[in-house]
TrEMBL record:
SMART domains: HTH_MARR. PANTHER family: HTH-TYPE TRANSCRIPTIONAL REGULATOR MHQR, TRANSCRIPTIONAL REGULATOR, MARR FAMILY. The keyword Transcription regulation applies. The keyword Transferase does not apply. It comes from the Bacteria. One of its GO terms (molecular function) is DNA binding. One of its GO terms (biological process) is response to stress. Residues 14-146 form the HTH marR-type domain. Keywords: DNA-binding, Transcription, Transcription regulation. This is MarR family transcriptional regulator.
C-alpha cells in the first residue's frame, strides 16, 4: 500500500481540522446528553429510543451497528429499556434467529411528548449556522466519513 505524500501545510490543516471537528462535536453533543439526562436516560439509552422512534422496529444487531455499540452494550441497554417498559423484544417469525426491538405504547407515548423538545434543542445547538450552511456541513461530513471509512479497508 502506497501512501500519498502530504505537504507540511496539508498535515497541519488536517490536524487542526480534526481538533476543530472534535471540539464542535463535543459542544453539540452536550446538548443531546443534557437532554437525555433531563429525561432520565443515559445518552445510549436515548439514542436507542430515538432510533426506534424515528426508524421503527430494528434488529438488535442493526441497533449496535447503527449506533456504533458493541453487542454487550446493546444487550445491556435493551434489557434496561425493556425492564422499564419502554421497549419490547420480538422474534422475527420468518427468521427465528433475528430479534427485533420495538417501542411499547408507553415508550411511544413518552417519545411523542419529549422528542419535539429534543428536536428544538438540537435545532438551537445548530442555530449558529444558516439552513444552507447546515446542509453543506452535513454533505461535507458525509463525504469525509464515507471517504475515511473507505480508506480503512484499503
Amino acid at each position: 500500500m502506497r501512501m500519498k505524500s502530504y505537504t507540511n501545510e496539508e498535515l497541519e490543516l488536517a490536524l487542526n481540522l480534526f481538533k476543530t471537528f472534535a471540539r464542535a462535536f463535543k459542544s453539540v453533543s452536550e446538548h443531546s446528553i443534557r437532554d437525555s439526562k433531563e429525561h432520565g436516560f443515559n445518552p445510549t439509552e436515548f439514542s436507542v429510543l430515538e432510533l426506534l422512534y424515528t426508524k421503527g422496529p430494528q434488529k438488535l444487531q442493526q441497533i449496535g451497528s447503527r449506533l456504533l455499540l458493541v453487542s454487550g452494550n446493546v444487550t445491556y441497554v435493551i434489557d434496561k429499556l425493556e425492564k422499564n417498559e419502554f421497549i419490547y423484544r420480538e422474534q422475527d417469525p420468518k427468521d427465528k434467529r433475528s430479534v427485533y426491538a420495538n417501542l411499547t405504547e408507553k415508550g411511544r407515548t413518552y417519545l411523542d411528548e419529549i422528542y419535539p423538545v429534543h428536536t428544538l434543542r438540537m435545532a438551537r445547538a445548530f442555530s449558529g449556522l444558516s439552513i444552507d450552511e447546515q446542509q453543506q456541513l452535513m454533505a461535507l461530513l458525509k463525504k469525509a466519513g464515507v471517504h475515511s471509512q473507505h480508506l480503512l479497508f484499503r
